[in-house]
Amino acid sequence: MNTHARPLGPGRRTLLRGAALGTAVPLLPATASAEGRAPARGRSSAPVSYRWLGTSGWRIDLRQKEQKNRTVLVDPYVTRFDTGLFSGSFDPGTRLRTDEALVREHAGTPEVICVTHTHWDHLNDVPHLARSTGARVIGTETTYHVLRSFGVDAGQISVVKGGEVLDFDGYVIEVASSRHSRGGSYSYFAPGTLHAPPAAAPRTVADLPEGDTLAFKVTPDGAPSALFMGASDFDERSFRGLAPDIAMVAVASSASTHRYVPRLLDALGRPGVLVPVHWDDFERPLSLPPRKDGTGLDDFLAQARAVSPGARYVVPDYRTVYGADLRPRRRRPERARGA
């Protein structure tokens, strides 16, 4: 499933790692690919930026000179309402709701939305975004049926299972079969899949099943590739060969998955840049900084550094705009706390 079938020798990944080790290695310009080749099929490349939307959500912006800017979203959940999950009083009957103004502010006008699975902290804001922007949504059959129940046009939804390599003008999206993370009881919330639209659109967080889990590798023309995970387990065989330059890796919530970190990093070929995600309190507004205490983040970083000491580690925050190599580019203006 490696789009460009490129070796893991000298090239973009080596440069990303070299910068992490403090060596004076320049980053490749956006017009060069991993081994110094021109971008695929002669298409012109464009600057790329990343914004973390919290949880496993990302906004990817591709700026192009002669075309309008392009935006790809992964798991864009920004409404962030309280279910009691982080206070120890989880209520599965919590009503779903979307803050449309907040979603518009953070998500922009996407061309494509990738959904790793249909739990509320990944899918909640997608029906509104799909209806209001006309964006194409890529997800599982369950995602398809849930979106149809919310009135999203069937022509906007692309059902995938893993193994697909989708070519858009300016970037490629590879889909990998993945797995949902396991709790201490070796299970997870709201399992199950849908094979037809529900009788009524989901109203509560319990109405949204997991519906199988995917991961997405996005490769903009002439820029490093990035893998996006939505949960902290994976299909080891499906991940081998992906070889992303950058990996947004979900932090494990328990130790139920055997040797999660070393198996994952080995399967991915030890990416040059590692970005831990899904460790923050996703019921806390994006206007507040992410809370790190008690999240398992430090343990993840320690395990990852033991396996891949040459990688560069980026702990993201909500306000920073990152460049194509996941180095900070600028800070976004701070909104009023609690807004």
Description:
The protein is α/β, with parallel strands linked by helices. It has helices at residues 12-20, 100-107, 120-123, 126-133, 141-149, 236-239, 260-267, 297-307; strands at 48-54, 57-62, 70-74, 112-114, 136-139, 157-159, 165-168, 171-179, 213-220, 226-228, 233-234, 246-250, 273-277, 312-313, 320-323, 328-331. A hairpin with a 7-residue loop joins strand 2 and strand 3 (70-74). Helix 7 (260-267) packs across helix 8. It is globular and about 50 Å long.
The count of β-strands is 16
> Which regions contain 5 or more consecutive residues with pLDDT less than 50?
1-15, 17-45
**Overall form:** globular
SSE order = HEEEHEHHEHEEEEEEHEHEHEEE
CA-CA gap between termini: 42 Å
| Helix content range | 10-25%
Give average pLDDT, whole number. Answer: 85
Put simply, the count of helices is 8
| Backbone CA Rg | 19 Å
Q: What order do the strands of the largest sheet run in, or round the barrel if closed?
A: 6-5-4-3-2-1-15-16
**Helix and strand composition category:** alpha/beta
Largest sheet: 8 strands, mixed
Portion in beta strands: 15-25%
SSE diagram, text form:
Elements: H1 12-20, E1 48-54, E2 57-62, E3 70-74, H2 100-107, E4 112-114, H3 120-123, H4 126-133, E5 136-139, H5 141-149, E6 157-159, E7 165-168, E8 171-179, E9 213-220, E10 226-228, E11 233-234, H6 236-239, E12 246-250, H7 260-267, E13 273-277, H8 297-307, E14 312-313, E15 320-323, E16 328-331
Parallel strand pairs: 3-4, 4-5, 5-6, 10-12, 12-13, 13-14
Antiparallel strand pairs: 1-2, 1-15, 2-3, 7-8, 8-9, 8-11, 9-10, 15-16
Helix pairs in contact: 7-8
